[in-house]
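Handout, section B. The chain below has 417 residues.
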Amino acid sequence: MTTDNGDKASGPCAGLRVLEFATMVAGPFAGQMLADLGAEVIKIEPISGDPMRKGHPQHQGVSAGFALFNGSKRSMCIDLKSPSGQALARELALTADVLIENFRPGVMEQLGLGHDGLCQTNAKLIYASINGFGVDGPYAARPAYDHVVQALSGTMPSIGSPDKPEPVRNSVVDKITAATAAQAILAALVHRERTGGKGQRVCVSLLDSYAAFMLPDLMVNHYFQTPGIGAHALPNTYFPIRTLDGHVMGHIFTDEQFRNLCRMFGRLDLIDDPRFAGVKERRDHCEAMWDEIRCSAQRIDTATIETLAEKYSVPLGRVNDLPGFFADPQVLHNGTYSDDDDPLLGKVRQLRSPIRFELTPAASRGRPPLLGEDTSELLTSLGKTKTQIDKAFAGHVVAGRMDEADAAGKSAAGART
């Protein structure tokens, strides 16, 4: 596996092969996280491709939404409903370190690709199943999407209100599940290393992942199960305040932070205000506290407020829109994203891995694969002859083969990883 400049792939997971039988967001994002760490990720797609490929905006036949969750992967199209396609998938599984799947429970078994069968022939395989609600139970067979799990999680009334529950308008369930799955896979790889190469199955559900991520600070009134312990109202501490030319938002917890907030805005009169005398009082009167500050903030420009916040060590920052985030000096300093020139897609902007390794830098992210772009090459790597490959394409067992003219086009388009 090489990068565009011909160097060997970098990252702590370089040399690992991951098979991804996954569509949409949770499974593919987990696969991309491993690709960012240097793993070779082979995306096994149906002949029609991952549905995310059909999203917009599109350029040169590539969907931006698909690209942002599938960079640096390889694509192979297999008809998994055919016995021949299933046999090919099993051959590939013999070469893999990790398999990621996000079908409903039982589907991989129906396809002849279940954990028990594959791990009998590849004992080192880490088999990661991502599903909506768990491998069994009353909801196991239900279709699950981000919206459904947010509804079930108990979080929406606290984000909005009991009369008007509100979701997080972001695919946060899918993405935290992806991060949880990547964590689980890496932990299983560590265990394999320590136990002489023994793989295992790991299961991650959207419901459990989102609950583990979102509920800790919402369930303080449910931690103590001893009768008679009083409940406390969960405070709203999120109050963006208008400045002369924008907005800022901060969080004030300690007494020192509050006194410095008052000093930076010239509101020394608030330091001895009994409504804000301590942590509990400020929590109970948080909106009133920020209303008082707002009166001063709206007469000062955002840049000046940021300078004052740094001077007084007050945790407060400007409210960016996306262009503002991309231009933010700390974001630019960190290299949080990169603008890359791709021979096929032109200039593209993508986020970098958030992890900085001292010895094994994360891999540079390449463009996403075109549908079935690597099918022929991967069949050849399995030892298939040209006659066998031609037969597989003619029978629609696989798709995406590139003839010599297409191969020349691929070369002109540039390598991914």
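Note. The first helix runs from residue 26 to 36. Compare this with the example in section A.
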